[in-house]
Write a structure and sequence with these properties.
- By secondary structure, the chain is mainly α.
- Helix content is 64%, strand content 0%.
- The chain has helices spanning 3-16, 24-33, 39-52, 59-63, 71-91.
- Helix 1 (3-16) runs parallel beside helix 3.
- The radius of gyration is 21 Å and the shape is elongated.
């Protein structure tokens, strides 16, 4: 998530759970921990949490993917794997006439 998206999530949390206080340290921690979490997933988890618990959510409650992997994450992982495979091709020595 982008910092603005984390702020939106935290704003909803502090509105729904008045015991939560947003300090600079609190915001910085949540931004760091949620940077790789998809905003739509976080918003969905917060919605479910707000309907089912009278206590504020933890970072783990918001970040939980419950078996759902975002398309962005899948794309990034695939690109990383393809780059790794490509680097293998460049690292392999093949004698003359034995190219791929």
């Amino acid at each position: 998530m982008k910092p603005l998206e984390v702020t939106k999530i935290l704003s909803l949390i502090t509105t729904a759970f008045q015991t939560v206080e947003m300090t600079d340290e609190f915001i910085a921690l949540w931004e760091t921990m949620l940077k790789d979490v998809d905003y739509a997933l976080a918003a969905q988890n917060l919605h479910k949490h707000m309907l089912s618990s009278k206590y504020p959510p933890t970072i783990a409650d918001i970040a939980a993917n419950n078996g759902v992997v975002s398309a962005t994450r899948k794309l990034n992982e695939t690109q990383e794997r393809l780059a790794l495979i490509s680097s293998w091709d460049n690292a392999v020595y093949l004698p003359e006439g034995r190219g791929l």
